[in-house]
Write a structure and sequence with these properties.
It is a single chain. The chain has about 700 residues and is mostly beta strands. The protein has nine helices and 39 strands. The strands form eleven sheets. A five-stranded antiparallel β-sheet has the order 3-7-4-8-9. Strand 34 (about 620-625) and strand 35 form a beta hairpin. It is elongated, with a radius of gyration of 29 Å. It starts with a helix and ends with a strand.
């Protein structure tokens, strides 16, 4: 088991060097390790023993290799067969400070300080069975050749040069006597057959300066467990290691122990070693920050994905677009108690996260003040590894809606509406003005309690606690009612069905509005160029709320309807309840409107659908949302993210810019939940040209 830690991640189980203890700061590092169950880390097959010679197979759930035989090359065979039968082994991870309790702890084994020539220690290996788990991988180190490091860095930026001299990486050279070699290799090969390669390496003994050949186990860049992003983006790597924990303990303990070893034992300047830098970043995060782990793709033109990094560390296309789902860290000020995500939002070029305590964090495009006034942050003695986003000042938020360039929020406890951002069509205050930088309540809503809010391109809408619909902003295409106020540019109005059925939900498109009442009827008004009103109507716009054509809708009594609008298309999610179990038993998706980008996912790029049709019948989905000209969804069983429609910025994360007519599974990172959210629920928001996701607690 000791050797297995070394093999997959070169991180050995905590224990004291019994043969010749390496004293670190005059204090040996003692073990708190509990051995792992080997059947948990590896699948043992019922196949005959001969099958072990087959190639190892990657298990995408456990994120480790299973089966197969450890590959080796001729140089390794020659090393093992040469000399007197003894073996030198180079350790660069936790073997530096902890040889464990297995064969390496035998008094006959000698350990000496040494350096690997032409290799760099890189914190870029996923760990799901050691310092993390499959629900939130940790990070451990591997060794990469100098040229491998250069090649990886060139994936982010072309301006990369190799080091002037070969990198020297400090570690421990173990001399293993002949009688222990077989035991060591059997242990290593049995536990870590796949994913790690045997190689020979040139090492320099610190004391004598003698160059020797040694055996090396390392993870290489072509392994599925290799994590390019962490090599390129040290602050992100530090954020992961600040919180991750696995069967062998906390990720930061492993990192800090190696940092102590390097600080107290290395004899040369380790300018090319990231360990100390990462340890410092981890300490900062743990002392000063609360971290939220998000995921997204698409445009980062305004840093709405929080992926602005030196040297394009997130590997964005043309430095701006993410064509696959990327890992994102939202760094906020330290909270005394956990304040977990409650909801997530995406607008035209800005994004938001709402926490359980009502803090709303907004970031991205802010030319019109749509990110609002932020709470002042406390000055720290040292610069944070990542910019710290502070919450909206002065408001405890219940819910929010992000428009193209404005933001609306409902205040917790009071249910009062506030708005800020672009107000060039009155979409914030109901009156024309310059951008609104401080949250304001429109005069006609000052005594009104709001339960639903929606923000479009240039207009806004709310549903009051009484069930009335109130709209304000641009009414040029009939998308905003005008029976309260109209001056030709700004329209304000309110409405309720004639039979008095209260409205329960509302959504805004680019130039139209849709609402749902308590009886499950859907009403639309505004532009109808692409059939987005969902009913027979020959004109280009209709300012009168009218029920859609429901001939194709199957809405059982008591169903819950959730409505969403893109610029010119609509999606309604119908969830029916099982009367016997009171559990969600059936989710049906309907859509209508514009489809020339494939945003309805029908399999074609037909111009438009003028009445609702059933969508995605071959998929079991738990959630569907509209982007400007795209649609994205969550798979019910796996919470995988899928998308269709417009994809110019890679916003549906398919690895290209091609529009998709079918609902297609996204590429890139899956959505992980950090400790405290391992078994949470994925939440998703889709904006103008990006999407963003996170994990929230199941209880909420």
């Amino acid at each position: 088991r000791v050797f297995s830690e070394f093999l997959v991640v070169l991180v050995v189980l905590p224990a004291t060097l019994s043969f010749r203890p390496l004293t670190l700061a005059k204090q040996e590092i003692r073990s708190t390790f509990k051995p792992r169950n080997s059947t948990k880390a590896f699948k043992m097959t019922d196949e005959p023993q001969e099958s072990l010679s087959d190639a190892p197979v990657w298990d995408p759930v456990q994120q480790i290799y299973v089966g197969g035989k450890l590959p080796e090359n001729d140089e390794v065979k020659e090393l093992l067969e040469s000399g007197d039968g003894s073996l030198r082994l180079f350790g660069y991870g936790s073997l530096c400070w902890n040889p464990g309790t297995g064969p390496l702890a035998n008094p006959g084994v000698v350990g000496k300080l040494g350096r690997a020539k032409g290799y760099k220690r890189c914190w870029a290996q996923r760990s799901t069975d050691h310092r993390g788990n499959p629900k939130f991988p940790g990070i451990v180190c591997t060794l990469l050749e100098d040229q491998e490091v250069v090649d990886i860095r060139k994936t982010a930026t072309k301006d990369v040069s190799p080091p002037e001299a070969p990198t020297l990486t400090e570690g421990v050279i173990y001399w293993i006597p002949p009688e222990l070699v077989a035991e060591c290799l059997d242990e290593l090969d049995f536990r870590e057959k796949g994913g790690y390669a045997r190689e020979t390496i040139s090492v320099i003994e610190d004391e004598s300066g003698e160059t020797q050949k040694a055996l090396l186990y390392r993870g290489t860049p072509d392994s599925p467990a290799f994590w390019n992003r962490m090599l390129l983006d040290l602050p992100h790597a530090a954020a992961v290691m600040a919180v991750s924990e696995g069967p062998s303990g906390k990720n930061d303990f492993y990192l800090n122990s190696l940092d102590v070893f390097l600080t107290n034992t290395h004899t040369i300047e380790a300018a090319n070693d990231d360990t100390t830098t990462l340890a410092s970043m981890v300490r900062y995060f743990q002392k000063h920050a609360s971290l939220h782990f998000l995921y997204g793709s698409g445009s980062n033109q305004h840093n709405q994905l929080l992926l602005d990094r030196p040297n394009n560390a997130a590997c964005l296309i043309d430095g701006e677009d993410a064509h696959e789902t990327k890992e994102i860290v939202l760094c906020t000020a330290k909270q005394t108690e956990p304040d977990l995500p409650e909801n997530i939002y995406a607008g035209g070029g800005h994004s938001g996260l709402l926490t359980a305590s009502g803090k709303l964090y907004l970031w991205g495009w802010n030319d019109n003040g749509q990110c609002g006034p932020a709470t002042e942050s406390k000055e720290q003695d040292e610069a944070p590894p990542l910019p710290c986003v502070t919450p909206l000042a002065g408001l405890v938020v219940q819910d929010a809606a992000l428009g193209f360039s404005h933001t609306l929020v409902i205040e917790k406890d009071t249910s009062r509406l506030y708005g800020f951002g672009s107000n060039e069509r009155g979409q914030v205050s109901g009156l024309l003005s310059a951008a609104v930088e401080e949250p304001v309540t429109p005069d006609f809503l000052k005594d009104v309690k709001v339960k639903r809010v929606a923000a479009g391109l240039f207009h806004s809408a709310v549903v009051t606690e009484k069930g009335e619909l109130i709209t304000f902003g641009c009414g040029r295409f009939g998308q905003s009612l005008s029976n309260i106020q109209t001056d030709g540019q700004v329209c304000v109005g309110k409405w309720m069905p004639e039979d008095g059925s209260p409205l329960v939900d509302v959504a805004c498109g680019r130039r139209h509005t849709a609402a749902v009442d308590e009886k499950g009827r859907i009403w639309t008004f505004g532009e109808n160029k692409y059939g987005q009103l969902g009913r027979p109507f020959e004109g280009k716009k209709d300012p009168v709320p009218t029920e859609i054509d429901s001939s194709e809708l199957d809405i059982p009594i008591g169903s819950d309807l959730r409505l969403d609008c893109g610029w010119s298309h609509n999606i309604v999610q119908v969830t029916s309840q099982d009367s016997d179990t009171s559990q969600d038993s059936d989710i049906r998706i309907y859509g209508w409107g514009r489809n020339d980008k494939g945003q309805l996912g029908t399999g074609s790029f037909e111009d438009s659908m003028k009445k609702p049709i059933r969508l995605f019948q071959d998929k079991r989905l738990s959630f569907v949302a509209c982007g400007s000209e795209s649609t994205m969804a969550l798979a019910e069983d796996t919470s995988a993210i899928l998308g269709c429609g417009w994809n110019e910025h890679g916003n549906i994360a398919t690895g290209s810019q091609e529009d998709q007519a079918h609902l297609t599974k996204t590429l890139g990172s899956k959505v992980y939940g950090p400790p405290g959210l391992h078994d949470g629920k994925v939440i998703l928001a889709v904006g103008g040209g990006h999407h963003i996701a996170a994990m929230k607690p199941l209880r909420s």
